Amino acid sequence: MRITELLTKETIAMDLSSNDKNGVIDELVNQLNKAGKLNDVTAFKEAIHNRESQSTTGIGEGIAIPHAKVAAVDTPAIAFGKSKEGVDYQSLDMQPAHLFFMIAAPEGGAQTHLDALAKLSGILMDENVRKDLLNATSQAEILKIIDTADDEATEEEAAETAATTDSDSNEPYVLAVTACPTGIAHTYMARDALKKQAEKMDVKIKVETNGSGGIKNHLTEEDIDRAQGIIVAADVHVETDRFDGKNVIEVPVADGIKRPKELIEMAQDTSRAPFVARGNSSKSETTNEKQGVGKTIYKHLMNGVSNMLPLVIAGGILMAIVFLFGPNSFDPKSSEHNAFAEQLWNIGKNSAFALIIPVLAGYIARSIADKPGFAAGLVGGMLAVSGDSGFIGGILAGFLAGYLTQGIKKVVSGLPQALEGLKPTLIYPVFSVAITGLLMIYVLNPPASWLNNLLLNGLQSLSGTNIMLLGLVIGAMMAIDMGGPFNKAAYVFATAALTEGNAAPITAAMIGGMVPPIAIATAMLIFKKKFTKEQRGSIVPNYVMGLSFITEGAIPFAAADPIRVIPSMMIGSGVAGAIALGLGSSIQAPHGGIFVIVGTDFGHVLQSLIAIVIGSIIAAIIYGILKPKLGKEEIRASEAMSE
């Protein structure tokens, strides 16, 4: 679609008389209304102001692009006005705005909205176009400038596509990803600022946009392999594990607009330290087909878990604080009732914890199907909660919603272009939510609920030797990879049990997870001569991390000497988990280490400490005995580094 199909003589206001932001908005809204584009002026103006309250549409370089998508619009349109004196529009670069484009899109017209913004952003990044528009004296001249720039932009886009798809070219180049919270203006402004600057610098660049219509111009594995560096200009989450080992620059999306030259130069600086993916994982594959089924499922599951964890930690810590007021301080019927504790409980238990399963399912679905899968995943997660299928149901709901949405995308891919805008706003959410919901209610929830209750009843019946065996297994799993798949699997299982009222698994997980850093620090105290001075400098940090339930403190030692460290830590953590459950410890929060042990299980603090101490000493002694003495070269290197 050409911009001048939306920007016409009737929607051009030319020279604006207003000298403030609200006045400019009023003039442009009135221009659209006079052109017959609106059916409710008040509602449209309110939508424009609501968008401005989220973040300014004054994008810098003297440009403002206020926009709204609302039922008050009859026909999609763009209004234009200019002010040579300039207006304080609270722009990103704090400079006055001179050129104003107001975009009006009807509900269901998402693609028109996005295409118009994307094209405009590219055109307006050209300084000559901005200068010509500001000096134009007639509506016809404005339209001619825009038409000419539109033609040039289309030709450039075609040339860029041909260049980036040239399979014969192995020339290295720079990549970028842009994304903003709304996925509209700033996403594309950053893209075009980087492209324009790269052209000036004679640097090849490919930019992926994570907009509200989904990912466009996706960076392939081949692109990433060839890239000198990658710029991530985003204010929202962008999948970055795929960039493991590359030179990556992560900045806010506004920096992509304001300082593209500096970012491109940094991306070309190959001396920078390489980016390391979360969890020190090996380089991520960019396509599920090349990852294999197991790795693909794990990746999607971990995406859900990583987004769920902030709710788990925040809710758990708040619940631990509540217990400091008394075991029943949150209950209005109890004599221990405390009003403040009750509100903390409402925030932690009834709000944060209530969102855990829906968020887990939502982000699993989003990992599979991008934004279109998110709504169905959330709804599936809510139905798992109401259907009593718990975490098992939530995980199934996430995968169901994600792959179902992918299937819906393929089914409707052949629809006419005119219906493209209805896909993300109507077709995907309605069909994916409805079908996911029905399948959860009638197909997945019944067996998942049965399995969930069977598992919980089995946990409730454990006692004596059996419960100590549970503690041994979960504790050891926490130390196998210290933040990797086994660790996360044990932690998710333990958290799921806690949300259903069984604290035994999370008790073993936390006690077992605290042991490795503490054991490493203890080993350095007992076997001092087997560790370098530099290593011994981490004794205090490891004790602090261990007491805080940050197992990852032991990772550097495990990575350097896995054959000795991992088995010894597994033994110590397993013993600690078994002792804790055997002595009756019952931690009621999913994170926080010693702080929540004191807060939620005060009656068993001594028992928990005994378990941690015994497990840590066992692990430290085994590791210390297995570890060889320092060689002369290691000692000399250590002394040289300390000088």
TrEMBL record:
Name recorded for this polypeptide: PTS fructose transporter subunit IIC
Any Gene Ontology biological process: phosphoenolpyruvate-dependent sugar phosphotransferase system
Lineage of producing organism: Bacteria, Bacillati, Bacillota, Bacilli, Bacillales
GO cellular component: cytoplasm; plasma membrane
Domain of life: Bacteria
Parts of the chain that traverse the membrane: 308-327, 347-365, 377-405, 425-444, 465-486, 506-527, 539-559, 605-626
Membrane topology summary: Multi-pass membrane protein
UniProt source species: Staphylococcus gallinarum
Subcellular location per the Swiss-Prot or TrEMBL entry: Cell inner membrane; Cytoplasm
Annotated ranges, domain PTS EIIB type-2: 174-269
